[in-house]
Amino acid sequence: MLRNGISSEENHGYIVKAMSVIQTSNLQLKYIFARLRKSSFVKNVLIVMSGTAIAQIIGFALIPIISRLYSPSDFGVFGSFNAVLTVIAAGVTLDYTLAIMLPKQKEDAINTFMLSCVITAIVSGCCLAVCLFAPSFFQDLIKAQNNWILVFLILAIFVSGLNRAFQAWCVRVKAFKHTSASQIIRSLSSSGTQVGLGYLHGGPFALVCGVVLGNMLASFNLARVVLRDLMALRRNIRWNRMKQLAIEYRDFPMYSASENVINALSAGLPIILLTHFYGIAVAGAYAFGMRILHAPMRLILMALRQVLFQKASETHNSGGHLLPLYIKITSGLFALAFVPSLILIVWSPQIFSWVFSSQWYTAGEFVQSLVFWMMFVFCNVPAVLFARVVRIQRFVFFYNLLLLAMRVLALVLGGLYLSSLHTIMLFALVGAGMNVFLILRVGYILMKKEGQDNLDLKFPDEMKEHSYVS
Known about the structure:
This protein is mainly alpha-helical. The protein has helices at residues 8-38, 40-69, 72-90, 96-99, 106-133, 135-142, 148-172, 176-199, 204-233, 239-248, 251-278, 280-317, 323-356, 361-379, 381-389, 393-417, 420-450, 461-464, and strands spanning 2-3, 6-7. A hairpin with a 2-residue loop joins strand 1 and strand 2. The longest helix has 38 residues, at 280-317.
């Protein structure tokens, strides 16, 4: 019998095919969730993310209080201190902390860890010498003439290096609960100190003190894991082996550490140049806006960065393919960032005035431009980590040199000819464009290394065996 030109047999066939597709989709979804429940990668991300989430909730909940206790000028000095600290801390271990993850033997890993600690002590000592013989160098950069700022700077540099080494070791041995707890300790002690000293009118001293104390207490928590393994492996620590590993992984200080310093310099330049062209209050508004943007980003990225690097290194060492993981993580981060970014682009000045007080309206205006850049910074984490795993640091090094040059050009031209708002807009557009280029380029390099066949992101064969309906 025909109806609308289709026989009942054909109609029945279409229904059977539709039911087959539905049942196949249900099986695929069940398979995905089953794999996620069993995935150690997902569990580790959630462990670290839980600690990071609590830490960020604590920090973010106290920001409305902190914003009313400190002025934009206080945040300007604090931002300058952080800019100088970030640049030095980016190279304080010469990035041998990343190499801790790579050796297959634990004995080599502990020697790489000790190498990172020794280099931290040497770099901190060199900075101490500069502070003793030419104190005005750092004081002029930070815009604070008090000697106390130099004491905190040296202490912060040393603690930052040790913290990076401790974090790397804990990630290698999968002590993710300790890294998670350290995030909570850092946030609670740092924000709590800033609030407490803020009520005593501590000014920029209180902001700096909170950050240094938070890093110290977080490092003490991680040290428990490190000291246990250090005592067990202490007989394997050899100066000669440390020297050999330093040579073997020399591409990390040559490219990765240099890249980090250049990146940190690029990130710190706005504070220094905005202070030069527009004053400390404008720089403080920028620093506060960036602090707000970084807070939710750290919630995901600090957890993801630690676990993803460990997973990528493990996959690479076992001969697995990185491209499917790279595509999935990058696209997932973009989807996650899109809606919050759109909200901030439209309403951030109003949100900042209402939540943090009217003195931060300018910071909200800056965020309208900065969020477009930070959305792509949020998505570039797999690109940065995978570039290190497959050892293409040379490319990333020259990319960051170009990025630094572009940022300097944008800030200087903006400072000479544009308002502060338009300068930051130009700066953000340059950063967004360069990050898109990095993401696409690293993906292309992975594709060439692993072959186009690895773009097949379908379910594995064992899934396909159960995806058909008889």
